[in-house]
Specification:
The chain is an alpha/beta fold. It has two domains: 28-133 and 216-344, Alpha-Beta Barrel (TIM Barrel); 139-206. The chain has helices spanning 15-24, 59-72, 78-87, 107-118, 139-148, 152-161, 176-184, 188-206, 220-229, 248-266, 285-293, 328-344; strands at residues 32-37, 39-40, 55-57, 74-76, 96-103, 124-127, 232-233, 272-274, 298-304, 314-321. The strands form two sheets. Strands 1, 4, 5, 6, 7, 8, 9 and 10 form an eight-stranded parallel sheet that branches. A two-stranded parallel sheet has the order 2-3. Helix 1 packs parallel to helix 12 and helix 2 packs parallel to helix 4 (107-118). The longest helix is centred in the middle third of the chain and has 19 residues, at 188-206. 38% of the residues are buried.
Amino acid sequence: MKFLSMSFIAPVFAASNLDLLISRVPPLKVPVRIFAYHRVREIDNSTMPYERELISATPAQFEVQLKFLTRHYTLTNFKEIGCKLDEEPDYKPENLAILTFDDGYSDFYTEIFPLLRKYNATAVVFPSTQYIESDTPIWFDQLGYILDSLKNNQIEEIINKLGMAGPFSAMQFIDKDAVFRVVKALPDTERLAFMASIISLSQREFEISVTGIKNEMLSWSQLREVSDYGVEVGSHTVSHPILANLNEENLKLELEKSKETIENETGEKVVSLAYPVGGFETFSDGVIDAVKAAGYEFSVSYLDGVDGLFQRGMYELKRIRVEENQSLALFRTRLALLPLKRVLKR
């Protein structure tokens, strides 16, 4: 889920040059900037999570970003915008920002929520409902744990034993990142079969057991508390599959069951969805039709960028991706350049 880093521009756009850069960007009427986060937590190599790339910021970095955003934007969420559109059909959002957090890890409650309260801000959290209060961690944490426990030659060995060499034939070597790229693209039934096989084989061949992995997801009581405060709880499906790879029946189940479960648990209507993984290949016209039919009013991708229009019934919304170790200078630079990129592409 990594994007092409813009870190190469950081030396050029040092703090002294950043304001000059932003001042030269023409005024762009971008009604809503949507930010995509995953986890906010300290980076401690002795207790690192199994998917390091899911760390968007440390708590200190996030607070700096949040403080900047609350000074320059009005933070809102999809439900609030929907209510505004109900009251004023001709409402045109302006200078708004939405903070979104995918997957529903518990650090949303322990690290992010206190800062939202401190700055009187709201956000949107997107949990996958199957993993809430479950004894089984989300599938990519299990896979990450197994791969982190293996050396690269052992990863290649286990992939060959699983009969998966074909998808990796064009790769010079097979490492953790390569396995994730392939597995995320598998049809859902094949992904489930792969996970069952690699869990069994890694236990048998290398004595690696996933049974001790801690499930780090939010609880329902925590989700109810943040919802009562004013944080929007959207859906990230039931089991976090790539929706474009599902048959019609399973697609409907993932969309409708997750929405229904969250509504029953929080007492609040679910209006928004985050596509798992979220690249171009993860949703299609058929998926969007199913999202509409399930009653969602907004859905967000993981495509990096901003949209020049915002209204109810938007199902391919881009987001500004926030990923590990973005300085405030880089954060502000991307915030300035992404709308300009949209204009230049016209």
